[in-house]
Amino acid sequence: MENIKPTSVFPVECLPNKIRRYIEAVAEHTQTPVDMASVAVLGVVATAIQGKYEIENKKDYTESLNLYIIIIAMSSERKSPTIKLTTKPVYKYEKEENKKRQAIMDKQKLELFIKQKQLEALSKNPEKLEEAIVLQTEIRELEEKQIKPLRLIVDDCTSEALTSLLADNDGKISLISTEGGIFDILNGKYSSSTASIDTVLKAYSRDTIRVDRKGRPTEIIENPTMTVLLSVQDKVLEELMSNDKFRGKGLNARFLYCNPISTVGKRKYKTEEIPVIVEEEYNNIINKLLEIPQKEETTILKFSFEADKELETFYNWIEPQLKNELEFMGDWAGKLFGACLRIAGILHCMEYSNIDSSCLVSVDTVKKAITISKYFLEHSKYAYMLMGADKEVEKAKYILNKLEKQDKMSLKRSEIFSISRSPSRNINKVDNIVKALDILVEYGYILELEAEEKAGAGRKKDIVFELNPLYFKK
Description:
Layout: H1 17-30, H2 34-49, E1 53-58, E2 61-64, E3 68-72, H3 79-123, H4 129-145, E4 153-154, H5 159-168, E5 172-177, H6 181-186, H7 195-205, E6 209-213, E7 216-221, E8 225-232, H8 234-241, H9 244-248, E9 255-258, H10 276-291, E10 299-301, H11 305-318, H12 330-333, H13 336-351, H14 363-385, H15 390-404, E11 410-412, H16 413-420, H17 434-442, E12 446-448, E13 464-467
Parallel strand pairs: 1-10, 3-8, 3-9, 4-5, 5-8
Antiparallel strand pairs: 1-2, 6-7, 11-13, 12-13
């Protein structure tokens, strides 16, 4: 698969200067590709603003500003240090916020304890039934208003805990991990419940989550939002991409895939420290975004006229490809425009600490979002090529489609290659279509005839295939 790995580097120049400087400093310090820190920062910013903003493309169509991202890297690629550095201000904010909340939580806990003891005493006296009912109502109201510890990021948890954490944190949480174990949980390895995958699916697009559990109150989470940032190895990705349950439910299509060019073998022993001022600038940006208050209604961001025209051009570029070049990954490509809107909103929030609906997203921001989206497109093509045997089946379907569109009833293998050539499907030489043609022969679409001798000494014979007239009605 080495020949189809993406070669593009994340366009870090599309990010604000203070963010860019920090990413480059992290990449230098950890000796990792700039892509890794770049997409991690996108996940961190999404964590800070998710649930606070949505971005509107047209009436009744908005996208929330959360992202699902997968970084594909081997175990020795220093994923953990990179993610630790980029998420550091989030963990610090969470810790400091919980210190502020502690006194209030202690007071509420004590008040609740006292009322519960009073209820126990009243419940023993039948004459105090009305007082007990009133007190029970007060206890229930107090439990509903009870402040809980803030949790912004979760690493490893059960499916039930993931949903409960969403419920306890105003419907917002981020799942950030340098392992792919979450996919085992979502696949039901430790439980027969499908609640966890439903939670992840619905939290992408802010669909209401309703969970009923035996012996526990129903959990209803309106407008949930989750950001997912994972770093996995090729093997884990292959399992994800070949999982019919995940792909059938659209889980795979929600992720943006990043496959950085490895720096292993070229890393320096002595590296530059991250400049203090550069780290402070980055931390300040993330803190300001985290400190933006959560309103009852999310703030709707809108595009300028020029930005909307740029988006229209991008849309018109994507749409025809959904039935041609991008058909093999149509589930993912169909969400690319929406992902671009999300990225544009995130870039917009990076630029401004005080954001309201009157601050329109500029055409320059949209151009940068499109550049980043095209980067993810190239890298996601690679992810979709990692589907085991499914790769050859998809390739066979693609070749079959090409055969249907031409007029001949018999073709040489070289001719089939010529009309089917597609680097994105790893069809860049004749040998790449051999297995796919075998599949078409096995299913009776084509018949392999005697090889036709090529002119010239030492030249290989070119196999001829006859098309089944029962299927190909010319």
